[in-house]
Structure formats: C-alpha cells, structure tokens
Amino acid sequence: MSERRLGFSLALAAAVCAAAPAGAQHRSTAADSLMRHIRHLDSVTLSRSKSVDSIRRSLVRPLPPVDVHRGTIRVRTDSTLAPRFRLALESVSVLIDRRGGPALASRLAKRVFVARRDSTPATFRMRRVVTMAADTARRWTVGRVEAPANPSVAELAAGLMTLVEQVAMDGVDSTLAAWVMIGRAPLREGAASERADVYIELATSESSASRRCRARDVPSCLDALGIDSLPGSRLERWYAPEDYRGLLRAVAPAREDSAAVVAWIRCRSDRDEAACRVAAAALPNDRIPMPLSASTRHAFLREVLDAGGPGAYDRLVTGTGTLRLRLTTAAGEPLDTTVARWLARAERSRPDRMRLPSGLVVASLGWTAAFVALALIRRTSWA
Known about the structure:
Elements: H1 2-19, H2 25-59, E1 66-70, E2 73-77, H3 82-99, H4 102-109, E3 113-122, E4 125-133, E5 144-148, H5 153-169, H6 174-180, H7 192-204, H8 208-214, H9 218-224, H10 234-238, H11 244-248, H12 258-270, H13 273-281, H14 294-308, H15 312-318, H16 323-331, H17 335-348, H18 358-382
C-alpha cells in the first residue's frame, strides 16, 4: 500500500513540476517538502504494521500437530495426549450414536476440536491444565473446557462430551433455545444427583402448579414446564394466594405503580396477606416467573431423549409445530407417558438426610474441647 502511495505522490510531484514555470523555485521546494512528509507517513505506517503483525502472531498459536478422529469427530492435539484422546473418542462416539443422527453428524463434521496444554490463573500461582475448544476455524467458539494437566481418559471424554452437547445446541431455532435456556443438549446419561435435584425442586417449590405436578397431574406438569398452557393467566395457573409472598421475593411490581410497590413492601416486611394479593395482581403476565427452573426442564429433556433412543435429537431439532408436538416426536411416545416416568424416577431419587462424615464430627468435637479448655485456663488466670 505504501509503494502505491509513493508512486502516486511521485506522479503528482512530477505533474506539478511539469506544469510549473522553469523559474518557480518555491514550487519545487513545496514538492520536496511534500515528498519528505509522504516518506515520514510511510515509515510510520510500516512501523505500525509490524507491531500489528507481532500482536497477531502472539495471539494466534499454531494448531497442535496430531489429528485424532473417530467418525465425524476430529480433535487436533499433541503427541503426548493423542493416545488418551483416541480412547476417549471411542466412548464419546458410543454416546453420540445412542441419540445422534444426520443432523448431529453434520454439525460435528463442521467442527475440528482442539486440545492443547495451557495454564490458567489460580490462587497465588498459575495452574497447568489441558484446554479443549470446540472449533479451530473461529475466533469465538461456542465453548471451552478445562481438564487437569495429566488428565485421565474419562476426564477427556467428559470434556469432549460437554463440547459436543454445546455444539448440538448452537444455532437451534429460537423456540427450542428459549425453552431449554441452558446452552447444552442433554446427550449424556443423567446423574443421580440431577434426579435428586428435580425431586428437591418439586418438593420445595412455592407453586401450586408444582404441587399438582408432583401429585401426578400431567397437564399441570406440562404447564409448569412451559410445554403446554392451561386456561387462565400465569398467576392463576401457577401460584395460589399462599404462594404470593414467595413469588414476590423473586419479582416486584413496576416502580411506576406506587400503590403496588407499597403493597409489595408491606407483603415482604409485615407478612400482610391482603397486601401480597394486591402486589401479585399488579404483576404483568410476562413477568410471572415459571415455577420450574431451566435445570429441571433440562432434566426433563434428557428423559425425552432417553425415551426416543437413536435419532431422538435429530427429530427434536428438525421437527416443526408446537413444542409439545416436537417433544412428542422426539420421545416416540405420548408425552403423558414420558412425564409419568420422569416423575416416578424423581420420586425414587429422593435424597437421604445429610450425614456428616465421622472425621468431621471428631474434628468438631476436638476443636470444641480445645476452645472450652482455653476458656477455662484464661478464667483461672484471671482469678
């Protein structure tokens, strides 16, 4: 670019000199001054371009040399991690085959995962890790996962599966993305802790819809999950008057509605039931929060994909119609059956009461005895 600018400047200077009279010494001086200014600008541009190139080289690192692939999944890594990634891809491909199909294969074929040794800030030091990213061709990828510096095959497989789940939800239609809210498709087996969390939420949710759902009222479950709607406003469908105070801890009326704001304050501070009703009735319909969280909806989607088996994910993301119809198509069975099985599994996953480890109990008793002894010693010294 600087050579073209210099050539244009020389041509311009030549034209000026040719058009000027032979004795016009001041015009020749002006052309020389212009040339010096152009050369100065060219040197500044060259210096800055070298700085930009240096920064670009420091930010963009070369890809790891080893290409490991299994089916449509490819990972670029180094020679020390490649053997473990080959074993990890075996287990990941088995999990994908249980739910996947052409749509998921097409999404994965467009990506090349990259895994390299890296470091991340930790308390008082830098901690060495293995970083896995979902794409090598884009500057901003859908996700990054870290594993320990010396990862096991299971840890690498878990990280890869997280990236696969993120890729599966990347770019889906807005209806499905807004309902799931969590940017991952539940392609893995569900953990017992996830079902226990569902039980806890159903058992403790301050919502009449959640209570009816736990009592096996399937339409209320579909309504609370945001899949289908019962008649009436959200406040009427999802919450009873005894739930209003809990609801108003999560949402408040608009500031412009002074009467509702005063009622909201009295409801929270004085436990005034009449004020709770006034404040709840003033909430706009679109501000009423759903009774069940995104985590619970994510767990229910896992139940749907479990029921559908191979190809369930493809049927979900390529289907049309209402959300209920798409979930029914993905599950391959009536959604009422899926809901009933999901509730039964959640009830069976009721967690035991928290049990303290014996070591923690002994340590607590030891510290208590030490504090009591210290207090007695200090009291004796004061006497």
